[in-house]
Amino acid sequence: MTNFRPMRRIRQLLDNEEAKEILASCTHGVLAVSGDNGYPYAVPMSYAFADGSLYFHSATEGHKVDALRSNAKASFSVVERDEIRPAEYTTYFRSAIAFGRVSIIEGDDEKMAALQLLGERYRPGHSADAHDEAAKSLNHVLILRFDIEHLTGKQAIELVNKTQRDK
Ligand SMILES: Cc1cc2nc3c(=O)[nH]c(=O)nc-3n(C[C@H](O)[C@H](O)[C@H](O)COP(=O)(O)OP(=O)(O)OC[C@H]3O[C@@H](n4cnc5c(N)ncnc54)[C@H](O)[C@@H]3O)c2cc1C
């Protein structure tokens, strides 16, 4: 069992449901993998979130896929809010970071389901189209499943204080 480190500014920690809501509401984030020559590779990606996992579609080759084939461990961060407050010299932010392992989905059924999920995410209400598009691309893309092992959400201290004042 991996020990993930705790947040230092614990008051800013969101509860798990709020962190999941951030993942469910955003449309892209940054996937960080162990890249070439010891350099971390942080690559922006669209995604869908379902049942505790993140799903990505990807080309069958490239830096990201090579990295994941040699080390499945990755992290993924999304920013839900980044509101600059110049007068306060700060930003009102909300974000989430997940750690986990990424596998390449091999089975056609699971791959198809993930492609449909992604299709629906980016074209809501067009499930028939999502099915057709998924069927067309099934053999040309990889689907990556990121199984989340550790998830945290964090918000700016000003938002924490505001929530407490509003209670
Ligand atoms: C908002 C957003 C959403 C995206 N959604 C997806 C998605 O759902 N699926 C998907 O496959 N791709 C997506 N992309 C593109 C993604 O960021 C990568 O460019 C793509 O996945 C190819 O990655 P690779 O490692 O195979 O590229 P490679 O061409 O193998 O990478 C080689 C080098 O090119 C450079 N590079 C690669 N990508 C980028 C980049 N985005 N910006 C600057 N330099 C780069 C890096 O130096 C990298 O080491 C998205 C990009 C953005 C900005």
Give short descriptive properties of this protein:
Pnp Oxidase, Chain A; alpha+beta; globular; eight-stranded antiparallel sheet; 167 residues
The strand count comes to: 8
Largest sheet: 8 strands, antiparallel
Count of alpha/pi helices: 5
Question: What is the gyration radius calculated from CA atoms?
Answer: 18 Å
SSE topology string: EHEEEEHEEHHEH
Helical residue percent?
Answer: 25-40%
The outline comes out as globular
What structural class results from the helix and strand content? alpha+beta
The CATH class: Mainly Beta
CATH fold title: Pnp Oxidase, Chain A
Strand content: 35-45%
Unreliable runs, pLDDT <50, ≥5 residues?
Answer: none
Number of domains: 1
Mean pLDDT, all residues: 93
* Distinct small-molecule ligands in the complex: flavin-adenine dinucleotide
Q: Can you tell me the CATH architecture? A: Roll
How many angstroms separate the termini? Answer: 38 Å
The CATH homologous superfamily: Electron Transport, Fmn-binding Protein, Chain A
Task: Write up what this structure looks like.
The protein is of the alpha+beta class. It has one domain (10-166): Pnp Oxidase, Chain A. Helices cover 32% and strands 40% of the residues. The chain is built from 5 helices and 8 strands; from the N terminus they run βαββββαββααβα. Strands 1, 2, 3, 4, 5, 6, 7 and 8 form an 8-stranded antiparallel sheet that branches. Helix 3 (108-122) crosses helix 4. 25% of the residues are buried. Bound molecules: flavin-adenine dinucleotide.
